[in-house]
Write a structure and sequence with these properties.
By secondary structure, this protein is α/β, with parallel strands linked by helices. Helix content is 28%, strand content 22%.
C-alpha cells in the first residue's frame, strides 16, 4: 500500500472516531441571511453557553444524541440538497464542530455556520460562510460579544443583529457606523418576534438610510415556532 493510500485510510479512521452531540437534522427553507428561501439541510448541534432572553431553540441546550461524523455526513447527503447550515445552540461550543464544517465542505456542500459571536471563529474552514450574531443590550448577553472576531470576517461572511426595541436599534446603528461594519461584510437587522414590529424596524432603517439588509424569519412566517422547520 502506498503512502498516499495509507494517509487516506488514516484520515478516514480519524474522522470515524470523531463525534458530535446532535439535536436534530432536518430539511427546510433557510429563513434568514442572504440565503433566505433556499432549500437547506439544517444540522442543529446541542449545547450553548449563552442564555439570550429571546432564544427560540432552548430545547437544544441539553441532551441530544452522540453521532459519528461519517453517519452525520450520510444523513445530510440523504436529503439530496447542496446547501447546509450548521446551527445550535452554539455549534462552536463543541470541539469537533470545526471538523464537521471541514468535512461538509469537502463533500461539496455550500455550508454556512450560525454562531452567537461569543466564541472564536478564526478556525472555521474558509469555505464556510460565518453568520455571526452581535448581541444587543436587551439580549442580556451583550457582554459576551467577542469583538476580536470582526478582524477575521471577510465579504464571504455576514453579521446579524436581532433587535428588541429602539434602544437596541440605536446601539446597533451606532456600532455599525463606528466600526464600519458594512465594509467588512453584509449586515443583517432582524426584529425580535413578538417584541419589535417588523414594519417599525423597517421605518427606522429607512429613516437613517442604513446600508443593512432588513430581514424577518421566513420559516416562522410559514410554520410558526415549530421545531424542525
Amino acid at each position: 500500500m502506498g503512502e498516499q493510500e495509507t494517509a487516506c485510510l488514516d484520515a478516514a479512521d480519524a474522522q470515524t472516531a470523531l463525534t458530535v452531540r446532535l439535536t436534530e437534522v432536518f430539511l427546510s427553507l433557510q429563513g434568514e441571511t442572504s440565503r433566505t428561501g433556499l432549500p437547506t439541510v439544517f444540522v442543529r448541534l446541542a449545547g450553548c453557553p449563552l442564555r439570550c432572553r429571546w432564544c427560540d431553540t432552548p430545547y437544544s441546550f441539553q441532551g441530544g444524541e452522540t453521532v459519528a461524523l461519517p453517519e452525520l455526513l450520510a444523513r445530510v447527503a440523504g436529503y439530496g440538497v447542496p446547501t447546509v447550515c450548521v446551527t445550535g445552540g452554539e455549534p462552536l461550543a463543541q470541539k469537533n464542530c470545526l471538523a464537521l464544517l471541514h468535512a461538509l465542505a469537502d463533500k461539496g456542500h455550500s455550508v454556512s455556520l450560525e454562531t452567537s459571536g461569543a466564541l472564536d471563529v478564526s478556525g472555521v474552514d474558509p469555505r464556510v460562510s460565518r453568520i455571526v450574531d452581535i448581541k444587543p443590550p436587551a439580549s442580556g448577553e451583550a457582554a459576551r460579544n467577542r469583538w476580536e472576531n470582526l478582524a477575521h470576517l471577510t465579504a464571504h461572511d455576514e453579521i446579524k443583529f436581532v433587535l428588541a426595541d429602539r434602544a437596541d436599534y440605536e446601539w446597533a446603528r451606532d456600532l455599525l457606523i463606528e466600526r464600519a461594519l458594512p465594509a467588512i461584510c453584509p449586515v443583517l437587522f432582524s426584529p425580535v418576534q413578538g417584541e419589535l414590529p417588523p414594519a417599525q424596524l423597517a421605518e427606522w432603517i429607512l429613516a437613517d438610510r442604513l446600508p443593512v439588509r432588513m430581514q424577518v424569519q421566513l420559516h416562522k412566517v410559514l410554520w410558526g415556532n415549530t421545531p424542525g422547520k
